[in-house]
């Protein structure tokens, strides 16, 4: 076992969180919107119709593979609400406003969680591993999760730096395809880099994220 390896089993954040698959699913709706919008001579109806159809198809496939119906319906609801906003305002770029808003909220939430010493990466991974909050009683893990969580803040900031000017300028085609470029590839990079930061942040000899070295004093907030 490598001394500074965060997990003795060799898992990565991508394997623990399923992040790449979820990010790939998230790109297909905007991609379908962009392709149909361009193919339909900038038809908003074609764009939203294609996005909903693709999302429904993905949802059916996920349910047949055993995924939770609630998660599938939540994803479909997001696309339907985005479509309704775009149709109501008659502004194609408005289709992306919900995702822009959720990225802004996510950047703020992740940054705030680090400041409050409840880094969201630790909350999520700890939940997946069934640790609840025991990881917070390990100073090394708490520090490593905090450092790695900044990588997640940066991914949201990078997206906003691109998407906000494009939305303001009404550049629907560029906005649609930038959603693809800045979703799956960025999430994949974020998972890899945050995993690397986690590995580098843990001290030599630490048993890994599955085995917190519990401190007797509770972590401060």
Automatic annotation (TrEMBL):
TM region(s), chain numbering: 46-64, 71-88, 108-129, 150-168, 174-197
Keyword Cytoplasm set for record: no
InterPro entries: UCP010219
Pfam families the record matches: DUF3159
Keywords: Membrane, Transmembrane, Transmembrane helix
Record's protein name: DUF3159 domain-containing protein
């Amino acid at each position: 076992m490598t001394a500074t390896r965060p997990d003795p089993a060799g898992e990565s954040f991508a394997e623990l969180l399923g992040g790449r698959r979820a990010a790939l699913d998230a790109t297909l709706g905007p991609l379908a919107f962009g392709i149909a919008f361009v193919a339909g001579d900038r038809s908003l109806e074609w764009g939203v119709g294609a996005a909903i159809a693709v999302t429904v198809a993905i949802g059916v496939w996920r349910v047949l593979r055993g995924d939770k119906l609630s998660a599938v319906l939540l994803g479909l609801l997001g696309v339907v609400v985005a479509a309704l906003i775009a149709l109501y305002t008659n502004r194609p770029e408005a289709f992306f406003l919900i995702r822009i808003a959720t990225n802004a909220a996510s950047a703020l939430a992740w940054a705030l969680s680090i400041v409050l010493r409840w880094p969201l990466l630790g909350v999520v991974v700890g939940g997946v591993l069934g640790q609840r909050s025991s990881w917070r009683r390990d100073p090394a893990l708490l520090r490593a999760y905090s450092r790695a969580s900044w990588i997640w803040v940066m991914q949201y900031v990078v997206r906003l730096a691109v998407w906000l000017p494009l939305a303001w300028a009404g550049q629907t085609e560029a906005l649609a395809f930038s959603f693809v470029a800045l979703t799956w590839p960025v999430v994949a990079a974020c998972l890899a880099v945050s995993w690397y930061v986690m590995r580098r942040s843990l001290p030599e000899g630490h048993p890994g994220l599955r085995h917190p070295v519990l401190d007797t004093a509770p972590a401060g907030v």
